[in-house]
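Weekly structure sync - notes
Attendees: PM, LS, DV (DV joined late)
Agenda: review two folding runs queued last week.

Item 1: First target. Sequence and structure tokens pasted below for the record.
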Amino acid sequence: MKKIFLPLAAISAMTLVNIGCQSPSETGALPPANTTKFNLENTANFVLLDPGTQHSISCSGLQAGKTSDGRLEVIAKVRNRENRRLEVQINCIFKDEQGFSTEDDPPFQSLILTENSTEDVKFTAMNTKATKYTVRVREAR
């Protein structure tokens, strides 16, 4: 008579598989999971989109106002925290009071920052519906 021994890891894996395959006790509609996770673009006025810019770029100031014809205008002071020249891409999403974009996603524009420098970048909404905004920065592609 042969005895078969399963390693503890195999038994644990089989248990996890069985638990994962069980049907939920509730039926019908369920609330969405992680609705507040990774929503920084919905709440912040300035976001860095990748690890490279998170390390190298900061924003030392944002100024928002209205043009004479009522469009939202934003100026971002973008700072290079590195002791080397950087090229990044930047854009601004203009949003209405509920947080929905008021225009098509604008293209990213290139921004070259010399060593430890700060540059002002101006954005103007295309229409008067915008009341909120998010300036986004990513590594150059």
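Item 2: Second target, run right after the first with the same settings.
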Amino acid sequence: MEKVEKIKFWLIFYPAVLIFSILSAIFKRYNLNGKAFVPETILTAAVIFTISVLGSHLAIYFKNKAAKLSHAELNKKIITGFILFLMFIVLISNVVVSIGGFVWYLINGLDLNNFLPNLFKYDLTYANKSLFIWFMFFSIAFFFTLWRKSSKKEQYLREENLKYRYQTLKSQVNPHFLFNSFNTLSELIYSDPGKADNYLQKLSGIYRHVLENGEKDLISLDDELKFVRQYFDLQKERESDKISLSIDAEDVKGYKIMPVSLQLLVENALKHNSMSYEKPLKIKITMQDDYIVVSNNIQRKNIFENSTRKGLQNLSERSKLILKKELIIIENNDMFIVKLPVSRAE
């Protein structure tokens, strides 16, 4: 869908720039010698079109670079970026005007010995004087727009982070989870009081972890892994050998992670997949460089569930805000994999 939108954009962009270039060339030539349709009009239109297209692609490049920066990082680099952008666009215009002038000399069989003197004396001087103000205006407007967009995005991410914290607290104390947990606990009280006490300790530990860390941006990875083990033990008490969790993450000291993030990914796997003794759901947690990876075999439930993936979306937004890194989601026919960024403690 995104590729289709890009194709539509360029199909509109190029014809629009071409029309703009032709009209600008006609207007310019008419102002210079009172004649709109002269041979020079075609060359002028070609030069304006080329500068406009290359300048637009340069702007898109800078826009994509800025999108990867946090607002604080953009503030540090915006002046340097502005100067570089202005220098590049002026350089592009000078190169294009020079090539256009050279082509004009060749077409008309003019003396090439006069090309460079006239280029620096007339063509480039006129082009820089007439275009520099427009370049300056465009650059200021463009970078101000980037700054404003980054500022709004930062504010939006902060608001989403606050909403997520609130939703996390609510979702962890949801009736479905409590209902299943209390049912299991009730059964254990009669069948195995000692096991019931252990189950209750883990259940209280889960909610203690959420309440203590819900307002923090980052906690130690070791604490989050312990929390996930507790959470999974409660689930396994009910599902037994229908589910399994393996954690292969050694030497995690010094790493930090967003609280309740791993639990959300494990819960997501349990929620959207079927499980049985014959076909158990297998969840695996591993470390890969500066990412903690949660993967599971895909066994979609027969009952249709309209998943909005809001949990993953919120987690991704938090990751961008707090860790300045994207959440990586990989899905194929057999496996669902999420790579969650972690941070090295300073």
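Discussion on item 2: The beta strands are 219-220, 243-248, 255-257, 281-288, 291-297, 328-331, 335-341, 343-344.
Action: LS to circulate a short write-up before next sync.
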